[in-house]
Design goal:
Helices cover about 5% and strands about 55% of the residues. It is mainly beta. The chain has one domain: Beta Barrel (Porin), CATH 2.40.160. About 30% of the residues are buried.
């Protein structure tokens, strides 16, 4: 799943003559994407200790509405011990009903080589030398420029013990301003089961500009994530990875 905190491309609408549209080749069922971001944010939390990331993946979309995809990004080994790569694999079904849209699917987050000892401070349970991953089912709906999506973990949330059935609710609004400009607003809420200090809300306000297929973006990101759950330290800094910040990006779909 493409998870950069920056808005995705909001392509300006264009008017294409009917004859030209009829002669245009059918769109490819496979598309790719590549991005460079100043900070990889997932649900408002920095995954790179506020350092840059290179991200990319591909998507396959069948005419029936079934889709599959893969998305990848570098991450910080401070947050994911012994790992510096995130690989996401997902699939689902999309269908439009006029202005309404439906999206059902599953996503698996994988961190190759990760190995950590994780404790749930609220329940006291510890898991030793485990691989970090996450599995979620999701259902989403769209109406014109509004979207709402619900994610539900079917295993321990990113391998933290006793956190199965954690969930995330994502509400977003996108506006096409024309001439390649777009804006996006977002509010999300992450509920972590059996660890109340890890529950938080995140916010985002962003702007994008499409220049010849390259989408440049800037977004203000903030959360109310608590220090006790989201403070990490490496050789260069100690920080709450949910602190507010500006994230810059450039991306391209091909």
């Amino acid at each position: 799943m493409r998870k950069s905190i920056l808005p995705l491309a909001l392509a300006a609408a264009s008017i294409v003559p009917a004859i030209a549209a009829a002669q245009a080749p059918a769109p490819s069922p496979v598309t790719g994407n590549l991005s460079l971001v100043s900070d990889y944010r997932f649900r408002g939390l920095s995954q790179t200790m506020t350092r840059p990331a290179v991200q990319g993946g591909f998507d396959y979309a069948h005419a029936s509405g079934i889709y599959l995809g893969n998305w990848n990004s570098n991450v910080s080994s401070t947050i994911y011990p012994n790992a510096n790569l995130e690989m996401d694999f997902y699939g689902g079904y999309k269908r439009a009903f006029g202005d309404l849209g439906l999206d059902l699917g599953f996503i698996y987050y994988y961190y190759p080589g990760s190995k950590a000892t994780l404790t749930n401070p609220q329940t006291g349970k510890t898991a030793t030398d485990i691989s970090i991953d996450n599995k979620e089912l999701y259902v989403g709906g769209t109406w014109k420029w509004l979207s709402l999506k619900y994610y539900h973990s079917i295993d321990d949330f990113f391998a933290v013990p006793d956190t199965q059935n954690s969930w995330y609710l994502d509400g977003s609004a996108t506006f096409d301003l024309g001439s390649g400009w777009g804006v996006l607003g977002h509010v999300g809420h992450q509920k972590v089961k059996s660890w109340s200090d890890a529950t938080y809300t995140d916010y985002k306000l962003g702007v994008t500009k499409d220049i010849s297929g390259f989408v440049f973006g800037a977004a203000l990101v903030d959360t109310n994530a608590k220090d006790v759950a989201y403070t990490y330290s490496d050789a260069r800094k100690t920080m709450n990875i949910g602190k507010s910040g500006i994230v810059l990006s450039v991306s391209r779909t091909f």
